[in-house]
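Our preliminary data section would be incomplete without showing what the modeling component actually yields. Below, a chain of 229 amino acids is followed by its predicted structure, encoded as tokens that our downstream tools consume directly.
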Amino acid sequence: MTKRTSGGELVAEFLGSMFLVMAAVSSMMFFVYVLDSNKSVAILANAMAVAFVLCVLIEMFGAVSGAHFNPVVTLIMALEKKVSIGKAVLFIAVQALGGIAGTATTHLMFWNEIGALFSVSNNVRNYVYFGEVIGTFILVLAILMLIKKKSNHIPLMVGFLVGGQLMATSSTMFANPQVTIARMFTSSTSGIRPIDGLVFIAMQVIGALLAYAVYRLVFAKTACESEDK
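Predicted structure:
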């Protein structure tokens, strides 16, 4: 476990979080407000944008910081003792700041459509909470399993998973507290009102901890079977 946290790691987590939020928010703005697409086309474009960008971000920053970009991923890595508690706290802080910076940068790009650097969302999402448990569960479990198996295709697999689940969960797969916070500050169709966002974050933590429990159960059983042989 690496105990010291370098500036490069924090910059990587900040930039990765920022560009991830930009992909999630700006793709919806572009297709809805600029191209005047219907919601189904916009969601498909959003899924593709997030998947493509996430693949590249993980490939870029994976060797620097581990490419978490997600507080619940950092939480699980801390439980796995892959990062220290101090590093986890710093990572989560810069992830949140990076996500908010991503919203601000996106609003600057689409200033004619939004006209504000930040705007608190009133987009109601109070009927899709369980989707965040499911989406976060499968994301965290996949990451843990891929790391355990030392996969050489983690960026591609995680990108595909997030893009696919964005179109296959009732909540459109936030599965990330920093993204959820960042999307509280946009009045666009990708936003979420703060009260729903806080519940989303609680569901994400629950989904992540459930995934970790299943992961530990699976590999504890595997270890016992190996010892028996």
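The CA atoms of residues 74 and 88 lie 6 Å apart. The chain has one domain: 7-228. Preliminary results of this kind motivate Aim 1 of the renewal.
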